[in-house]
């Protein structure tokens, strides 16, 4: 199975983790919003970040259509070797990670929100980074990928410069 999607994270901030989403064979690039990376809480180190509070670790995930009880048709991510499961295993694991409609990190609890633009949301001092038109963007992704086939998605950090020969 080949990688059909890739998220390249370009900003890790206290106001969210942001990336570019590309789909193999398509020119359009989308944006993503997630929560910041939070590795531990109360002295416990979590392999996949703190459940419901952190973005998920970089890596390759199964990306499958899923009918979410609370969000409707979405995509669900899983990779047990990274500590991210489809369903709950125990209180230390991540599960039910979805790509669903969301514009800011306040709209996700460990999931990923897609959008077609990136910029500030809110007024004056309350501005926070956001992605825009999330519902339309998710619908575009569903139209392109369909809602039947399981695919692979790679999530990685943007690295702007690699020295030659290293």
Structure description:
- The protein has one helix at 134-145, and strands at residues 3-13, 16-23, 29-34, 40-41, 44-45, 59-68, 72-78, 84-85, 94-95, 97-99, 113-115, 117-121, 128-132, 151-157.
- With 166 residues, it is mainly β.
- It has one domain (3-157).
- A hairpin with a 2-residue loop joins strand 4 and strand 5.
- The chain is globular.
- The chain starts with a strand and ends in a 9-residue tail after the last strand.
Provide the descriptors you would attach to this structure in a database record.
mainly beta, globular, two-stranded antiparallel ribbon, eight-stranded mixed sheet, 166 residues, 1 helix
Topology:
Elements: E1 3-13, E2 16-23, E3 29-34, E4 40-41, E5 44-45, E6 59-68, E7 72-78, E8 84-85, E9 94-95, E10 97-99, E11 113-115, E12 117-121, E13 128-132, H1 134-145, E14 151-157
Parallel strand pairs: 1-14, 8-9
Antiparallel strand pairs: 1-2, 2-3, 3-11, 4-5, 6-7, 6-14, 7-10, 12-13
Offer a concise description of the structure.
With 166 residues, the chain is mainly beta. The protein is built from one helix and 14 strands, in the order βββββββββββββαβ. It has one domain (3-157).
Overall spatial form? globular
Helix content: under 10%
Tally of discrete structural domains: 1
SSE order, one letter for each helix or strand: EEEEEEEEEEEEEHE
- What is the number of E strands? 14
State the low-pLDDT regions, or none: none
Give the DSSP E fraction (strand runs of 2 or more residues).
35-45%
**Amino-to-carboxy terminus distance:** 29 Å
Counting DSSP H or I runs of 4 or more residues, the number of helices is 1
Spatial extent as radius of gyration: 16 Å
Structural class: mainly beta
Biggest sheet strand order reads: 10-7-6-14-1-2-3-11
Q: Kindly report the average pLDDT value.
A: 89
| Main sheet specs | 8 strands, mixed
């Amino acid at each position: 199975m080949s990688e059909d999607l890739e998220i390249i994270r370009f900003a890790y901030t206290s106001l969210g983790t942001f990336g570019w989403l590309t789909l193999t064979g398509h020119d359009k690039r989308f944006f993503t919003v997630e929560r910041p990376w939070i590795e531990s809480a109360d002295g416990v180190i979590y392999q996949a970040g703190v459940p419901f509070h952190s973005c998920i670790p970089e890596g390759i995930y199964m990306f499958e259509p899923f009918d979410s009880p609370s969000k409707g048709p979405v995509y669900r991510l899983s990779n047990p070797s990274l500590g991210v499961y489809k369903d709950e295993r125990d209180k230390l694991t991540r599960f039910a990670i979805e790509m669903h409609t969301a514009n800011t990190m306040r709209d996700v609890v460990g999931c990923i929100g897609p959008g077609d633009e990136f910029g500030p949301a809110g007024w004056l001092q309350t501005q926070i980074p956001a992605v825009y038109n999330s519902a339309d963007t998710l619908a575009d992704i569903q139209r392109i990928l369909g809602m039947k086939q399981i695919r692979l998605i790679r999530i990685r950090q943007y690295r702007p410069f690699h020295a030659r020969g290293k």
